[in-house]
Design a protein that fits this description.
The chain is 52% helix and 21% strand. The chain has 189 residues and is of the alpha/beta class. The strands form four sheets. The protein has a three-stranded mixed sheet, covered by helices on one side. Strands 2-3 form a two-stranded antiparallel ribbon. A two-stranded antiparallel ribbon has the order 6-7.
């Protein structure tokens, strides 16, 4: 059984402010497959403060740097695709045939597409006497549902990274396991 009782904040796995945990159940077997930490207001405040501090430098990275980061995330993601599929199988009760194909590979597709779009995106455009400049907005708060977990996570995280935003991700407490693996991938990248 998996046990995830820490949060990833400011580039490190940290103890939560409280010790409350939650059982994650495989809906296909109705058996507990994991225990996760439950966050509170102090944990959210800490995560937002860290993301805000990181935004100051990350928002200034070049398109080339962010594209290279997305490429690295995709490379590591592909090497961990089996782990992601197994986590999805457990958290969603999905057949491994679905988890290891459409479910897991949806995330990879969003990451690679974000890198591709980023390389060709016009962040500045002249419109007559005016110029429109598109720039990072700040810290993104990303909340994802239980269904299609990697699809939902990566279709939010990858574009935010591509444009230079930092984020706080709150995956579904019903299907959080693949998000923990994705966080390990992000850390490695």
């Amino acid at each position: 059984m998996r046990e995830y009782t820490k949060f990833y904040i400011n580039g490190a796995w940290v103890e939560p402010s409280a010790t409350t945990t939650l059982a994650v159940e495989n809906p296909a077997t109705l058996e507990q497959c994991a225990t996760i930490a439950v966050g509170n207001e102090a944990d959210v405040d800490s995560a937002v403060a860290a993301a805000k501090a990181a935004f100051e430098t990350f928002s200034q990275t070049s398109v080339e740097e962010r594209a290279a980061l997305l490429d690295k995330i995709a490379e590591i993601y592909l090497s961990r695709i089996g782990d992601i599929a197994e986590a999805i199988r457990e958290e969603m009760g999905a057949p491994i045939s679905l988890a290891s194909t459409a479910q897991a590979y949806a995330g990879l597709a969003h990451i690679t597409e974000a890198a591709k779009v980023l390389r060709n995106f016009a962040f500045s455009e002249d419109l007559g006497a005016h110029r429109v400049v598109k720039e990072p907005i700040g810290v993104c708060g990303l909340i994802t549902p239980w269904n299609w977990p990697m699809n939902q996570v990566t279709c939010k995280v990858a574009p935010a990274l591509a444009v230079g935003c930092t984020m706080v991700l709150k995956p579904s407490e019903v299907a959080p396991l693949s998000s923990y693996i994705f966080t390990e991938i992000m850390h490695e990248a």
